[in-house]
Amino acid sequence: MNVLLNLFSWLQALRLQFYPMTLIAYGVGAMAAVQQTQAFDSGRFWLGYAARCSSSKWPRCWRTTTSATKAIGKIPMPAPLPAAPACWSTASSASVRSAEGSSWLSPCSRSCCALCSRLRPTLLAMGYTVPPLKLSHRGLGELVVALTHSIGVILPGYLLQGGDWHDPLPWLLGLPLGLAVLPATILSGVPDYDADAAAGKNTLVVKLGIRGALIAATLLPILAVAAALFCRELDGMADAHGYWIYLAVPHAAWLSWRLGKYLRQRTLTGRIDGLMALALTSILWFGAIPLIRLW
Asked: Among 61, 66, 123, 290, which residue's CB has the most CB atoms within a 10 Å radius?
């Protein structure tokens, strides 16, 4: 029974529900490159994705506060610790081997991809929670999550399929996606406000206050749509978004209206599962539509 409980806690800690969106964003980058190179390497695609998943496990092994530890806290302490260096090693070596083995990449892109692969698990995964950076304790954790779930996965997918890092396409695809991820990451900190504040974890919600954070979350869906519509008018972006991206407009408007309605309450209490679900599903427009159109 203890083994089953530990296994269930590990599955909770891994947060597998977030992986489909990561795969979609990674696939967007890969397909955007394939549109130009007309060559797809499935082995390198899955190796790069495995590296991305492995590197994201490091913070899970070290988190020490609030809801993120509800699952970790149920795992015996010796268990997560050996997993941390193993995840980092897997992520680093797999990513570097993918990048350095890509003979069709330009030397500059190959070096850039390898460098990012070495630095990402260290600076972002470790730095998210571990001193001296502790980005999640300084109000920067939400921005890190937005970056690592947008351009942080789009660019590796793009590079590993032969794209060049200075092409504007992956960056333009990552801009609206990153803005769309931010509201969900901000909202995820609202239920943890009291626990985070008591633990000295200065998340963005703690720094801005619940109302200030919710105001930011209300504006960001509109900014994400505006960025997508702007990018759509640029050269090479119309094929990625098409007219389908206009379907994101009513979703963003509905999310902002719901957040505004919640803000007008005298006391901001109660569960926000509905708002979280609405914010998470809004991300799909900026990943699924480009992936389908570029496939």
From this structure: 290
